[in-house]
Amino acid sequence: MALKCGVSFMRLAQIHKTIRCLSTRTRPETINNGGSHAAFPGAKAPYTTEIKFLNEHSYEPIPIYRVLDSNGEVIDSREEPDIDKDTLLNIQGRISFYMTNYGEEGIHVGSAAALSPSDLVFAQYREVGVLLYRGMTVTELVNQCYGNHEDPGKGRQMPVHYGSKQRNIVTISSPLATQMPQAVGAAYAFRRAGSGRVVTCFFGEGAASEGDAHAAFNFAGTLNCPIILMCRNNGYAISTPTSEQYRGDGVAARGPPAGLHTVRVDGTDALAVYNAVKKARQLAVCNTPVLLEAMSYRVGHHSTSDDSSAYRSTDEIQKWTQEESPARKMRLYLERKGLWSEEQEAELMREGRDAVIRAMQRAEREKKPNWREMLQDVYYDMPPILLKQMKQMESHLEKYKEHYPLEQYQSEENSA
Amino acid sequence: MVPVRDALKQAIDEEMERDEKVFILGEEVAQYDGAYKVTRGLWKKYGDKRVVDTPITEIGFAGIAVGAAFAGLRPICEFMTFNFAMQAIDHIINSAAKTFYMSAGAVPVPIVFRGPNGAAAGVAAQHSQCFAAWYSSVPGLKVLMPYSSEDAKGLLKAAIRDPDPVVFLEDEIVYGVPFPMSDEAMSPDFVLPIGKAKVERAGDHITIVCAGKATHTALDAANELAGKGIECEVINLRSIRPLDFQTIAQSIAKTHHLITLEQGWPQSGVGAEICARVMESPSFFELDAPVWRVTGADVPMPYTRSLETLALPQRGDVVAAVAAVLGNRISEASVSQ
To answer: I want to staple B231 with a disulfide (CB 3.0 to 4.6 A). Which of B94, B125, B136, B203 is the partner?
Structure first.
């Protein structure tokens, strides 16, 4: 899907002035300068004669950039991005038509719209919006979840662990935060190649507690990689609230000390995310690593095996479903511009629901992948030990075929 | 005569020259020339872009290497020792080994994880263990274990060119040991096949299967036994996965006796795997006596030298094992333990 973003460079220069980008040059003012600067290899800092411990209250909290208020009204007209109608409708279409991940739609779709399609994306597992924005179809998503023979992943990955090489989306990795240093590694490869491509890596505030996250920040900073590290701080890691996840001013506060240009954004505001990612991309493409923390609220349960009412109040959920819903805000904004209506919204929802149900019905009927695919792609060339097992299975099935439901499996001739 | 360290460097240097995509990263690999000087001179020759010093975080730079391989480069990831690679094992197993499969063949991960493995000297439990059995149990990985300088050069070059992720287990104690290298092996075109063992010494009476530094112990024991009229066939596996069982089977058909020798622990070790494959194959009927495994002691490595020596298989252990197997005295040996 082609991106048609009519944002001019002049416009972005203006955004630059207003989004507060924190760099490592920001110094705490609490330290009393004793006169001269020390020249230790590990720190170029002023001396002081006063013992003063810094804590989480020593710094102002990093502000949250937003464009729209809760009613979808632009707060400062200078911040309204100049996005053409088609792209706006595409954003709204993808946001409304979102299968799970309620509350975070603005982050994924807003960021996907601001990136270049050639930029590589390392997702965590809550970023279906990025895939949809890049043109992945419902049928493809459903086929992956069913692991039928139409699944381009050959039925090998857990459900929702999507990946698409042609859309520059790396297959999702289950162990939390492994994608983070890997994303920085891919960004390092882009830097080396001078490719002009940027890597965007999504992760949650829970993943940010993993050692991988620290390593990724450190490497992004020291290797000067073209990367946007995109934290979706949705308030909960399964049942663990942020108050138990970390101390201090969220994940963004860790950026400047690691040498990352850092900004915090209202993740329920797709336009704010769009502006911030657009700007972040400009920095990253010049090998300035960026940390972006998008604040949101995970309205849905963690997964289908979770009931979140056990650890949070329904009032709390209600507030974020109503007042701060990204889809609602964007809808009100578009309605005000005369680009969208309640009827269109209802029609989109109906079409969306029908499309999903049709895709699921089709996917259920599709054949299972050819059994041989189980043994393929373990190595680049199939080793003799696997080849032998495949041959044995072939002759076994030839001899005893009436005992196996072979008709449910894709035949060899038709398999991918 | 070329020390193993220089043979490894030659391999890396030649492959970096041959393919711009090849680069090396790890702790101290650049300006310091590597903790064990394997990368000596490479930083001066190739610069920061291709010889990358990293912060001290195995989980980080192993992840960086995997990501760079996803994006089309061919990283060589040096661990100061494989003991530290346990911090990064998630990237090696969950990502490097599985991504080609999980991406349905779309994303190959051509990467070499290399560094010293096994017991060094006097560095105790947390720095002295063999990971051959660990990694060799993982489909998607290839596991190589060189012994001599020719092994080191030929196998490392094969590993760097290979489209799959390779775990390359070196030996700190052997780095400085010089081996003869043929003119052929000195050539930049010298590459050894992955998955092919080498018969280091031919013999008719008993087969000793080993890899890495244990090959030295085996050859040493074979020399001693030759003086007593016992001819051992010593098979240097070179590759733990894929495992060249054909060469082992051919040898058993000739000698009808087998012992395995490794520095790693006995349970679920490389020797255990070889025994299982013998059991599952016609080679079992070729045996005139049960197989015997000579392994490291089933304890964490002690620090003090006398105990450290006892914890590792020595020449005498191999000689005794050969005598027990050939004399069909396995049951006595088992009872006496």
So the answer is: B203
